[in-house]
Each structure stands twice: as structure tokens, then as C-alpha cells.
Amino acid sequence: MWRGLLLKGTTCLQQVSAQSFLRQRHFSSQCFRPLTCRFLHKLREIPCIPKLKGTDHFLSHNLIRNYKKDAKSTVEFPLSPITVTDIKQYLRSKDIPFHDGYSCLHIPSIFINPSTRKDSFSLFIDKTTGQFLCKDTLVEGSWEDLQDCLEVMQKDEEDSLSPRVLLGYPEILEEQEERERELREVQGIWSSSVPLTDLQDEEAQLIKTMYQITKISNATLKRFGVRLFKPTKCLVFPWFGGPDSSLKGIKLLSAQRIDAEKVTYNEATVPKSSSYFNLFGLPLVSRMDSEVVVTGSELDALAVSQGTGLPSVALPRGASCLPPALLPYLEQFKRVTLWLGGDIRSWEASKIFSRKLGLRRCTLVRPGEFHPCPLEALSQGKNLSRILKASIPAAHKSIVSFKQLREDVYGELMNTDQVAGVKWTRFPELTRILKGHRKGELTVFTGPTGSGKTTFISELALDLCMQGVNTLWGSFEINNVRLAKIMLTQFAMQRLEENLEQYDFWADKFEELPLYFMTFHGQQNIKTVLDTMQHAVYLYDINHVIIDNLQFMMGQENLSVDKFAVQDHIIGVFRKFATNNSCHVTLIIHPRKEEDDRELQTASIFGSAKASQEADNVLILQEKKLVTCPGRRSLQVTKNRFDGDVGIFPLDFIKSSLTFSTPIKGKLKLRKVTAKPENKEEVQEKGNDVTLKKDEGKKEKATKTAKASQAVKSPVNGSGKAK
């Protein structure tokens, strides 16, 4: 606990949005927490923030504001990543019995009196991160916190600790007011909403038609507690949790008709999504249930429950993320069926989530024409139980036959647009060539020094992040504050220095993006960087990692070692990481020194051919230094492993918003840089020379034409001579 305060500067991940690290934790894990009453008494004597008077009051307010920002923007990451072997060895050394679960280790809770504990193993320790959660008391913390608790218990010869033992700084006024406001908002919406069974038949049928749930019975809606918020015609899904099963939050689902045939559905949660950890349907699950179906939406959970009678739960953020804080609640099930939707993206997410849940117990519903999402399958009258029986095991062997691959191949042929990946909205020409951004690929990006590589790739990543691609930035060349400023300017499409009154508006929207930063700078050990990336993929389901750039990360140390061999090793490590974690890695590499008038090629990438060989995509930002704008820069795709298309398209740089755009066709004109004439007389003299030459050419052409015409008209005698 004291260790957490001393190691506060060792954070390896920095987060843009104010996301909670653990379930409903209102205190920063960086704060020190006393364990016993005498420690707590001593803590009261230590002022958290100095009481300043007069002109120092402003400084005190800023201290509070800075603390709040730091506590919410950083995520604790251990110096040496914990392993499940380390956890087991420590528990054995303390004579603590444990059960080896699928994703967690189970031990008897130390926060419950032994007389009431009996044989309950209700404290869960995450095998990957060491985070723990007691399901009976909802006490949670890091692996270091649990170690400190066990050490104090052993020293004081106690059998248990109070659930209130893990204390932190009291909430500052702003956080407390925000939490109380959210709770009032939740209670207000919930009390104002009505069960669908209380509606008139005509109104209830209209709502069901609007949300395509005409096949969902009123009994199912009532059992899951679904309500309607009449003022906005939104469906309300409750979040009940805690020992007293109190209302902790809600999710609102609204429908909006775009045209006569298309309807879009929007979700909103209170509290905001970063603090919303609701497994919808969990209160209906019995402790004796050994099988569960995990879906990507609340409506799908209703359909599965009604169509199969099996326990079903819905993930709070659909197929985009499976927070590790929810894993303990899924430990009791011996079989977990993942049915997250009916498209390729949900299928990819199912394969990723199965690794967290444990491959040996997971089965996956393969999407396809006959296996749509649960709600659609119920509406079409399909047998949901039969679809679940056709699910395939997540664990796969080393050798497969085409019979096992046949459905996957058919799925890719049928869903070519989804297989191509996420499309860029700001760069349609790049989408035309690469077809999209795909998981599990390695992209190598290069360009001349000072051409705007970081600025371009930040906009490229921002484009994807705005579409829900969870992104992790590793900027080893420029600091995160400067990078965030660039991305915020690109996000707002304007210079905020000139519009500071709009900063909070755009910053609030920017916080909602699933964007994270590594706090490394300069040379770093590849193992440390890789551990941090693995940590982020596990916690936040990162889909895109950007490394800017390879040379800065390698540094200049160990000059005796072959730098090309080191670079090849690092590229191979990133290639393996991208494949094993279904995560797209974009690697920025500086090129070799080339002449200014020569364009870069794939062979211009610094190092050996390893980079271009391992890469799935190779992008080159070309810059014509001897050409004036517009059209000075262009993006060239020299390798595309997905379908082989390559090409080049021009880019215009808009300085006011730090963005790149494709110029309008026909407007692009390149002009070579030449020396300007000294005066107007010289220009006029050159113009006169050109005019004289044109006149001479016209006269010569007219003479030749006249001679040819005369030759045609001249009569010819029998001997072939003209008369």
C-alpha cells in the first residue's frame, strides 16, 4: 500500500478517458491506505493538502484539480509483471488453500469471519494481473494490496480483516458531486419509467415494433426488469449489484429512423460507459447454474433466455470489450457459449474473449446466413437451441483439415466487406487501396524526416479510434502532451489556441474516445514495452498499437551489438504479438538517407529486408522537396498482403487543423521550382522571342502547303514530265 505511493511514477499506461480501473472504485489506487486503526489514526494527523490562506487559496485549488486529473488519467502497472506461478508460490508460502479456476484463482475470503465463511472460496485473484475481488463484500484491490493484507494478518495473528480496511483519500468535492448527480439521475429516470406490461396494448405493440422485439414476451421483459422511459421512448435496462442488490446504473436504448427502411439504435449509460460494469441478466443466474450464454446486447440476452431457457447475460459494451473486472462473475460456469452477434467482427471478438475466459470451457457460435444474432434468429422463427448445439469449441488443434476451415472460408467470401476491416472516413483513397484496417496485421510506415509522419499517422489512428477501434499509442519521440494536443486539434478541426472558450467542449468529447498512451519516452527495453502492450490488450481489448518510432525505441546503446540484428529481432517480436493477440501494430521506421530529388522505395526502409518481409502493409509518405504546394506530399502503398492492390494518391496539408486531405481531382498542379527573372524587361524580351519563333514557324508551314498544292494541280504528260 505504501509501496503504491512510492512507485507512483512508474506508471506505464496513460489513459485519455476517465475510466475506472476496477469495479465502482471511487478512490485512486495510487493513494496509500492504512490497514489498522492505529494507522488510520496516524493518517488523520497528516494533512492531505496544505490549508493555505489568502492568496494561496488559488494554489490550493489547483493542487486539488491537478490531483484529480492525474488520478483519473493514469493506470497502475507493476514494475515486474506478476505471473500465476508467483501468485501460487506466495499463497503456498502462507498456507492459503486455493482452487485453480479458468481465469482466476479462488481463495477463502479474508474479509469474512471464519465462522461464517465455512468452505466458501469467494475471493478471486486474476491470473494475469493479480487484481482481486471478494464477491461477498465487493472489496477489491491490486496484488500488492492483498499481499499487505495477508502480511498484517500474519503479524497481528488475526483470522480476518474488516471489509473497510482498504481506505483511500476521501473524494474531492467535484467527484463527490458528480457521483451524487449521477445517482440522482439514475433514480430519477428509473422511477419515471414504467414496465412495458403496464402500457396499453396498442402502445406496447408500437414500442415492440420500433425495437423489433415483437417476439419477446411480456413475461421475459418483466423478469429482466426492462422498462420504458416515456418522454424519449427509450428502453431502460437496469444494473442491480452489490450485497443488497441495489440499483447502480441504467442503460438507455433509443431508436431513430433515418429513412423509410433504415432504423439506427443508440445506447447511453449512467454512469458513463467507463464506469458501467453491468452483466445484464446476472441477478437471474442461480449459483447452481453451470452453463451460460454471453451475448453482445441486452435484447439478444432476452432472446436467448426466452428461446432456450438457458441463463444468459449481456456484456456492457458489446463486442468491443470484456473488462477483466467481470471475469470473477463468470467463474462458476463450466461452459460459456459466446454468441456476440451475427457478423465477422463479433466472431473475431468471440475468439479474443475466449482466451480471457479460458479456451477449454468456451464454445463459439459461428456467424453466417443460418446463424444470425439471437434476436434476429428468434424473429425469423429459428431454433435457438439447435444453433447453440452447433457451436464449435474455442480450443483448436495444431492441424486442421479443410472441412474445419470450410465454414470460415465461406464466411469470408460472404462477408467480404466486413473481412476487409474498418474503413477510413478521412482517407477514402487509402480505403480504396487497402480496403480497410484489419486486426492481426503489421503495418510499416516510413517517410522523409520532417515530412509529417507523426502528424499523418496520428490522424490515421484518430480516424479509426473515432469509429470505436481501441487504440494504444507508444510515442517514443515526442511527449504525450504534445501528441494529445495534435490529436485534439485534428479532432476539433481547428486551432483551439484561438478558441480557448471551446476547449472544454472538445476535450470532453475527446475523453470519450477509447484512446490510451504509453508513458515511455526515448530508449526502452523491448520486453518492458511488450509487457505493457500485453497488459493493455488484456485490460482494454486494444485493437491498434502505434509505435513511433523504432529507432527512438532502440536507442544508441550497446553499439557493439549488430543494430540490424537487434532491429530484426524487435520487428519479429511485434509481428508475433500482432498475430497472437489479433491486434494491428503500426510501426513507424525512419528511412535511409536519400537524395532530395529521389522518391523513397520499399528498399529505402532503414535496416535489412526483414521489416518489409514481415509487414502486411508498407506505406510511404512521399515528399517532393523541389515542388511547390499543392501536391507536395503523397501517400504510396507499396505492399498490400490482403489483396495485392498498391497505388499512390496526393495529400494536401491543412495547417489550421493539422490534417491531411485528398485534393480535388483536376485541381492538382505541380510546378518545378526555378529561378525567377530579374526584371519585367527580361520577361518581355523572352516573350517576344517566343512570339517571333511562332510566326516564323507559321510562315514556313504556309510555304510548304502552297508548294504541295501547286504540285497536285500541275498536269502530267505521258512521259511523266510536266508541260
From TrEMBL:
Residues 676-703 have a biased composition (Basic and acidic residues). This is SF4 helicase domain-containing protein. Residues 705-714 have a biased composition (Low complexity). InterPro entries: DNA_helicase_DnaB-like_C, P-loop_NTPase, TOPRIM_DnaG/twinkle, Twinkle-like. It comes from the Eukaryota. Pfam families: AAA_25. Residues 416-667 form the SF4 helicase domain. Residues 676-723 are annotated as: Disordered.
